[in-house]
Design goal:
This protein is of the alpha/beta class. About 55% of the residues lie in helices and about 10% in strands. The protein is built from nine helices and five strands. The structure holds adenosine monophosphate.
Length: about 200
């Protein structure tokens, strides 16, 4: 089966919904880079870069990194050649300000978002999944207290973006519950339909 043409895509959903795993699948299928701000931040913390040192405490508390800093990092990443025809952003934008910054970057390229995948999952399920990930991966922001705080931050700052994307007619909601292949198949079908592929 041939791959659909590249597209400019986002995946949003509560922390623990499985966005990272599905982002990789979508990126493979649409032959675009998967760009995760969380991964970029964690790599900087691990590498003890100046950026990493600035953001470490913020990330470990479950708060959001300031918009200006996050927007700059994403704008820089999107200016790279591999993202010219399409990309899959995972974990960005997370605030209304970030949506506007992304719109501006794309407008400069004469481009716009094609679709936003909303991976739906209820809070109890995602908290359970994150507590399990804490045992497996040992992420510093996967303690129960921080996990709960990240859900609150999502509800307050990121969930409002869903209505915004829906208003633009580009929201594709997918049930995130189920095994990885099943959810991936659901996303592919819904995205192909939305993109007319
Ligand atoms: P994630 O891997 O997407 O769950 O992100 C982990 C942490 O990185 C978040 O809890 C935030 O502290 C930070 N982070 C990731 N993406 C963003 C973003 N778009 N804006 C602000 N902070 C972010």
């Amino acid at each position: 089966m041939t791959n659909p043409a590249p597209a400019r895509l986002l995946i949003v959903g509560p922390p623990g919904a499985g966005k990272g795993t599905q982002a990789g699948r979508i990126a493979d299928r649409y032959q675009v880079p998967a760009i995760s701000t969380g991964d970029i931040f964690r790599a900087n913390i691990k590498g003890k870069t100046e950026l990493g040192q600035r953001i470490q405490a913020i990330i470990e508390s479950g708060e959001l990194v300031p918009d200006a800093l996050t927007n700059e990092i994403v704008a820089d990443r999107l200016s790279q050649a591999d993202a010219a025809e399409g990309f899959l952003l995972d974990g960005y934008p997370r605030t209304v300000d970030q949506v506007h910054a992304l719109d501006a970057v794309l407008a400069e390229q004469g481009a716009a978002l094609d679709a936003v995948v909303l991976l739906e999952a209820d809070t109890d399920a995602v908290v359970a999944r994150l507590l399990n990930r804490a045992l497996v991966e040992g992420r510093a922001d996967d303690t129960e207290e921080v996990i709960r705080h990240r859900q609150e931050v999502y509800a307050a700052q990121t969930a409002p973006l869903i209505a915004l994307f829906d208003g633009r007619g580009i929201l594709v909601s997918v049930d995130g519950l189920g095994d990885i292949d099943e959810v991936a198949a659901r996303i592919s079908a819904a995205l192909d339909l939305a993109l007319g592929r």
